[in-house]
Recover the amino acids of this structure.
């Protein structure tokens, strides 16, 4: 994983993580893991933290540093999975553009992440081991079985 | 809640007050649930049926090999 990433820290339950994008020191990114209907299945939300304490999940992933931000999210996912070894993380963008962005990030991080994690793509009917170049609707990441 | 939290200049560690963290946790949990609800509602029931069935197969080590899907 050669892309630089930002330092992050978590709440006491390792379900919420914070970091400062753009390297300006101010905490402005938040990563939230939310349990889904099945045990050990979590969705992930990346948000921008506003000064008033509210969270925006519709903004861009970064201001010229999207690669660093998504690399940091990959690190956060790794941390979460080590803490929750049975968990599977469900990743889906709110827009098609975001899904493509996440897919590109997974491809970029695949050499490193693929050593330790199972990454699967889901096309709406079936799930398969993630293949670069194939389009998916969502992704699932878990510790390598 | 005004937030303008900076790295501690001496330790380079990011710091929140416990009160800020607790308020953020509540907001974040609510937001995570709202986003998940939107994602769930964004797909027909068949999508989720297929997804959870695929997850069951995956956990049993039965993910469909790529070669058979080409």
């Amino acid at each position: 994983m050669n892309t630089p990433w930002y330092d992050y820290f978590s709440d006491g339950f390792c379900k919420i993580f914070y970091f400062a994008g753009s390297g300006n020191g101010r905490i402005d990114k938040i990563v939230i893991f939310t349990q889904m209907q099945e045990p050990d299945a979590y969705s992930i939300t990346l948000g921008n933290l506003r000064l008033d304490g509210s969270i925006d999940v519709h903004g861009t992933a970064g201001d010229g540093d999207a690669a660093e931000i998504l690399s940091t999210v990959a690190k956060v996912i790794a941390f979460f999975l080590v803490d929750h070894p049975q968990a599977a993380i469900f990743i889906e963008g709110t827009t098609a553009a975001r899904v493509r962005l996440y897919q590109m990030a997974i491809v970029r991080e695949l050499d490193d992440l693929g050593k330790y994690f199972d990454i699967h793509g889901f096309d709406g009917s079936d799930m398969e081991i993630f293949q670069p170049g194939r389009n998916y609707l969502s992704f699932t990441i878990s510790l390598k079985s | 809640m005004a937030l303008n939290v900076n790295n501690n200049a001496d330790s380079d560690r990011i710091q929140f007050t416990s009160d800020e963290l607790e308020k953020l946790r509540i907001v974040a949990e609510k937001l995570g649930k709202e986003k998940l609800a939107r994602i769930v509602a964004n797909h027909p029931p068949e999508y989720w049926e297929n997804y959870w069935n695929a997850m069951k197969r995956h956990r049993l080590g039965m993910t469909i090999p790529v070669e058979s899907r080409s």
In short: DSSP finds two helices and nine strands in chain A.
